[in-house]
Structure formats: C-alpha cells, structure tokens
Amino acid sequence: MIGGRIRRHTTGFPAVRYARRIPNSGPGGADVFLVSSLVIGFGFYQVGQGNIHRRAVRAEKIAARQAILPLIQVEEDARFVKELKKQLEEEKELMAHVPGWKVGENVYSSGRWMPPATGKLTVELS
User: Fold this and answer.
1) From 4's CA, which of 12, 23, 40, 78 has a CA 20 to 30 Å away?
2) pLDDT tens-digit map of 78-117
3) Per its UniProt record, what InterPro entries does this chain match (predicted)?
4) How far is CA 61 from the centre of its chain?
5) What's 19's DSSP letter?
C-alpha cells in the first residue's frame, strides 16, 4: 500500500493526541505591566489623599489648641501662684529659726535671672 492510507488495527479507542498543545496561560506582559501601573498609581493617589486629610486634621487640632491656649495659661498661672504662696509659707515656718534668712530669696547667687519651676513645688526635707 504505497501512497495509500494505512489501515491500523485499533480496538475502537480514539487516537492519542501527543502533540504539544500548551494553552494560553494568562495575560501578556504588557497587560500585566499596565494593570500593575494602574494599581500602583491608584495607591499613590490614595496615599496623597490620606496625607491631605491628615494634614487638615493636624491643622485643625493645632488651631483648636491655639484657641484655648490663653485659658490654659491662666489656669496654670493661678495654680502656680497658689503653689508658690504655699511653698513660701512652708519656707517661712521651716526657716524661722535661721537668723538673716529672707523668705523667697534666691539661694543661688549666679546673678542671672532664672525662670521659676512651673511643676509641682515641694519642699524636700532630708
């Protein structure tokens, strides 16, 4: 049977396909690059919008603090004066027996003015 069709002896099963047929396994490189670029760009946009919002919230908080700062300062000044009077009274009682002691006078003789401590004023006895 030269040039003719060869008749094979089969048992009724279809022929086995052994040729290499790899299916397309997804989008191409350009598509992946484009989608990735869009996702990254959207992410950067969202970060920028979040930064703008965070900056506005921070500015609002600073403005609110600046608005009530005089009230807070008045309260702190009143507290400081009250504590200072209390401390001077305690100093007067404790140093009553020391001759030449002047209540409220600076014990350091640096000749320079130093701002007073604004924290809790206490007399330490040791």
Assistant:
1) 12
2) 988 898 899 899 999 999 999 998 998 877 777 887 777 6
3) GRIM-19
4) 15
5) S
Both tokens assigned to 101: 């002691």
Judge contact between 118 and 81, C-beta under 8 A: no
pLDDT band at 30 (very low <50, low <70, confident <90, very high): very high
Contact yes or no for 118/80 (Cβ under 8 A): yes
| Residues 104 and 123: beta-carbon distance below 8 Å | no
What are the structure tokens assigned to 106, written together?
């600076």
| Residue type present at position 46 | Q
The rounded distance, in Å, linking the Cα atoms of 15 and 113 is 105
- Residue 97, amino acid: H
Amino acid at 33: F
**Euclidean distance between CA atoms 46 and 44, whole angstroms:** 5
How many Å apart are CA 16 and CA 10, to the nearest integer?
Answer: 12
- The answer to whether 76 and 113 have CB atoms below 8 angstroms apart is no
